[in-house]
Amino acid sequence: MQRKHILLSVLTLLALSLLVTACGGGQVVERVVTVEVEKIVTVEVEKEVEKIVTVEVEAEVEEAMEEAAVAEAAPTEAPAETTQETAAPAAQEGATLEIVRDRGVLRCGGNASVPGFGYLDPDTSQFAGFDIDYCKAVAAAVLGDGEAIEVRQTTAQERFPVLQSGEVDVLIRNTTWTISRDTSLGFNFVPTTFYDGQGMMVRKDSGVESLSDLEGATICVQQGTTTEKNLADVFRAISVGYEPVVGEDATSTREAYDQGRCDAFTTDKSGLVSQQILLANPDDHVILDVTMSKEPLGPLVRHGDDQWFDIVKWVTFGTMQAEELGITSANVEEMAATSEDPVIRNLLGVEGDLGQGLGLDNDFMVEVIKQVGNYGEIYDRNLGPDTPFNLARGVNAQWTDGGLIYAMPFR
């Protein structure tokens, strides 16, 4: 009997709630509370009765609310484009190699105004130079064709955003390896290809023989480079006052000096050598016998794609190792076919699977050396005795000759 009273009470409440809901009353309750009744109770019904729903209905309501919340939070505009202030995300592992192969061309950030390193020949409209040859070396390894490159001419100010944004695959443009560029800018530097130092050029008839003789002088320097900061640091350290004349790029800086707007011209010594031949009267100028800084120059890639970093790194090491072993563009195929030296056989992919570890053919260095040459060939072709620069190897000699060029082992 007691249970019958309970059942009648519950049915009465249910009927009342349905009646109120049908008349438009009440909102859906946020949750359902289940009460187990052990005895007859008296329920006082308020004027507005909340709608009682089952657990299944409640779940559907919650799902609908979640979907609405997600839709409301979703962005309605496309992400902002990458700018110099907002770098693109780091490269994804393995993505660069796939992108380059799908495209069929390596995009390389380079220079167009530094003869010997990166220069756009106005007669041929072709890029040439030491750095450009390293672009070709990477293309030969990855695509089997050293000429499958597109050089994106960059200024000192735009070179880093261009690499960060993914517009180029690698930057090979007389760029100094520093801790801030290696960390906060999000780059990985491969082995240094040219060890340099900052120098100073003056007119021979100026009477200037040392940096201290430049007290109160005007000095041409390129904007956005380590050269600009080095100049300030060195002259402050030796208590010599000067007035900087800042150029936007190498060409405008050189032209300002050549036009007599400054008393001296400073940049990396390699840059001074290449710029000197472009002056109206090159023999009227001299590079002082002083080195103001360390400037290790070489290729760099974005953080985040270690496979691509490894490829550019080991292509660079491979050119150095080839020179050490006496492997040249003229004899590389013969060496691959006949050499019994295990070090040579590893480098050229005759035995082992070192190329596969990079995602390349095992004989990738055969193509690099055959098409572009070893480190010594690249150096001599662009900077050596048969060029207008005749730049001595110096510290850029092989380690076996007292220099700093030293390849890690291919094994």
How many strands, which pairing sense, and closed or not: the largest β-sheet?
Answer: 5 strands, mixed
Shape: globular
Helix content: 25-40%
Query: What's the multimeric state?
Result: single chain
CATH architecture heading of the largest domain: 3-Layer(aba) Sandwich
CATH superfamily of the largest domain: Periplasmic binding protein-like II
- The average pLDDT is 84
The SSE order reads HHHEEEEHEHEHEEEEHEHEHEEEHHHHH
Commentary on this structure:
- The chain is an alpha/beta fold and 411 residues long.
- The protein has three domains: 2-73, no CATH class; 97-194 and 297-401, Periplasmic binding protein-like II (D-Maltodextrin-Binding Protein, domain 2), CATH 3.40.190; 198-293, Periplasmic binding protein-like II (D-Maltodextrin-Binding Protein, domain 2), CATH 3.40.190.
- It contains 14 helices and 15 strands.
- It is globular and about 65 Å long.
- It starts with a helix and ends in a 28-residue tail after the last helix.
What is the strand and helix layout of this fold?
Elements: H1 2-22, H2 55-73, H3 95-103, E1 106-110, E2 113-114, E3 118-121, E4 126-128, H4 130-143, E5 149-153, H5 159-164, E6 170-171, H6 179-182, E7 187-189, E8 194-196, E9 198-203, E10 217-222, H7 226-237, E11 242-247, H8 250-258, E12 264-268, H9 269-276, E13 285-287, E14 295-297, E15 300-302, H10 306-325, H11 332-338, H12 342-347, H13 364-371, H14 375-383
Parallel strand pairs: 1-5, 1-6, 10-11, 10-12
Antiparallel strand pairs: 2-3, 3-4, 7-15, 8-14, 9-12, 9-13
Helix pairs in contact: 4-10, 4-13
